[in-house]
Amino acid sequence: MSKNKGLIRKIHDALVAKKVSCLELTSWYLREIEKSDLNAFITVTKEQALESAKKVDEKINKGEKIGLLEGVPMSLKDNFSTKGILTTCGSKMLENYVPIYNATVYEILKNQGCVLLGKNNQDQFAMGSSNETSYFGPVKNPHDKTKVPGGSSGGACASVASGLAAFAIGHDTGGSIRQPAAFCGIVGLKPTYGAISRYGIIPLASSLEQAGPLTLTVEDNSIVYDCLAAHDPKDETSSKIERKKTFNSLDDSIEGLKIGIPTNCFEGSDKEVYDAVEKAAKFYEKFGAKITYFAFPEFDLSMPVYCVLGRAETASNMACFDGIRYGYKYKGEYSDVNDLMAKTRSKALGDEVKRRIILGSYVLNTGYHDALYKKSLGVKKLITDKVAEKFEEFDILITPTSPTTAFGFNYAGDDPVKMQLADICVVNANIAEIPALSIPCGYDSNNLPIGMQIMSKCWSEDLLFRVAYKYEKENFFAKIIGGVQFEI
Amino acid sequence: MASKISKDEILRLAKLSRLEFSEDEIMGLLKDMENIMKLTAKVEEYENDKIYNNSKINIHQDYEKPEYDACTRDEILSGGINKNGFFFIKKY
């Protein structure tokens, strides 16, 4: 197999060849995290990281073989439970919360020998598209510090783009992996619903969310996906379908690809974004790809459906944060237990979280349940069916990841709808449960990265990676801004 | 149509959700809710026939109804709408 090496394989080769020790490498990353002013980390796990690195070095020095991910320094979004390590979910409510168990995703990576550098900043309880709702302050975009990194996995994306971690794990309910990946110029995958375990993730909307890798290159993303995608008996939503390995087929042919471009997903996009994504789609014509433009009105229903279902599930999932069992507890006077819960929740939850809980309670209320919640479930299934039909006609669908490049702080002002519309292109994949990958496809005139989103039918991540890999081989736009530099 | 929300409704929902809001926050919330409801109106306005005639399978949510038990094993395994009009999750 001939291909350019991604960052993970370069690190692996450097460790095996003893060009650098894992301890040195980890120390470089930790030093860069300390120097960084991006606010990409909430917790830095320095001692654990150095300890893990020493173990990898011992293994290498004994002449033992190490796995591809062994010794690779990485970070986790702060909504993955990590035993003995602070897990705040970007909130005041969980400011001092230390889980007593590991999320399966972290458990897998830990068993692979990855070095956890820390936990990344994120929008509070993953509610937001700009990382501005974090209790720990906003994250800055490494490409332009006056811009947001996107959200809610903004800290994870910023850390990969700025050389503060070799890869990171994010979480995507309505675009929270792909939109910040596009804003930070890196690769982000939202896998098929049920592909990667959700066990130990502090949930936002259980029927829509998935964990996924954030990396500099498509190859790296494929390596991490292959490692994480497996059935987990601890997660009822984890599918038993056998996952196809993707790394070994990266270089396989994509001749005769049928590409669909849903035109309504391009409406409202900035001209530079529109042109860059269309140009990127046309790149595939040289492999005999046939591009067809078509209107797909069902996608216009995805955002309204997401607003209803996402908020209904949020209201339900957030009910456990009451100050009684764990997390923040109101310290002042209160009349009874209900008053204590109300005061606790009102003090410790941010405005966006409260807004979503109220709307969620509303759509689940008697009288509105049928008109909104139940109907949204019906429309969700309709969209899923229509998308499945489209994939009988096309192999992949291409859209912009976001209609704009990274925007400035306070872009939406007091209008939550404006912020929500930043996810208009990405939310479709969550509603339809299909995999979707965002890769960088150029820069705008302000030198901000543009992301192209590629979607395919359920359980065809191998095709997604193959298609993206072909593009990346000839059009490599990712770059590390500062931090630990590797030639990629 | 469920898209108009009153201040009383917000107060009722706040109590239900165990949240407290100041007068200013309630006014802000009313405006936000109105904007979000404009977005969700597309779902409300969507014709039922279009959903149920086009959708092959759906998720059954109403566990309280006794008819839920009237599904056959095949229906549950394959997913779909049964004779009672209930929807089932297709298991992968």
Write the layout of secondary structure elements.
The complex is a heterodimer of chains A (488) and B (92).
Chain A: H1 7-16, H2 22-35, E1 41-44, H3 46-61, E2 73-77, H4 104-111, E3 115-120, H5 154-161, E4 167-172, H6 178-184, E5 187-190, E6 210-215, H7 218-228, E7 258-262, H8 271-282, E8 290-294, H9 302-317, H10 337-348, H11 351-363, H12 369-393, E9 396-400, H13 416-420, H14 427-432, E10 436-443, E11 449-456, H15 461-474
Parallel strand pairs in A: 2-3, 2-4, 7-8, 7-9
Antiparallel strand pairs in A: 1-3, 4-6, 5-6, 5-10, 9-11, 10-11
Chain B: H1 7-16, H2 23-45, H3 48-54, H4 73-78, E1 80-81, E2 87-88
Antiparallel strand pairs in B: 1-2
**Number of helices, counting only DSSP H or I runs of 4 residues or more of chain B:** 4
* Helical/strand content category of chain B: mainly alpha
User: How much helix, percentage-wise, in residues of chain A?
Assistant: 25-40%
Counted beta strands of chain B: 2
CATH level-two architecture of the domain at 7-254 and 400-474 in chain A: Alpha-Beta Complex
**Overall geometry of chain A:** globular
What characterizes the major β-sheet of chain B?
Answer: 2 strands, antiparallel
Overview of this structure, please?
The complex is a heterodimer of chains A (488) and B (92). Chain A has 488 residues and is of the alpha/beta class. Chain A has a domain of 323 residues: Amidase signature (AS) enzymes, CATH 3.90.1300. Chain A is 36% helix and 13% strand. Chain A is built from 15 helices and eleven strands. An eleven-stranded mixed sheet of chain A has the order 1-3-2-4-6-5-10-11-9-7-8, sandwiched between helices. Chain A is globular and about 65 Å long. The model of chain A has no long low-confidence stretch (mean pLDDT 94). By secondary structure, chain B is mainly alpha-helical. Chain B has two domains: 39 residues; 34 residues, no CATH class. Chain B contains four helices and two strands. In chain B, strands 1-2 form a two-stranded antiparallel sheet. The longest helix of chain B has 23 residues. The radius of gyration of chain B is 19 Å and the shape is elongated. The two termini of chain B are 36 Å apart. Chains A and B meet through α9, α10, α11, α12 and α13 of A and α1, α2 and α3 of B.
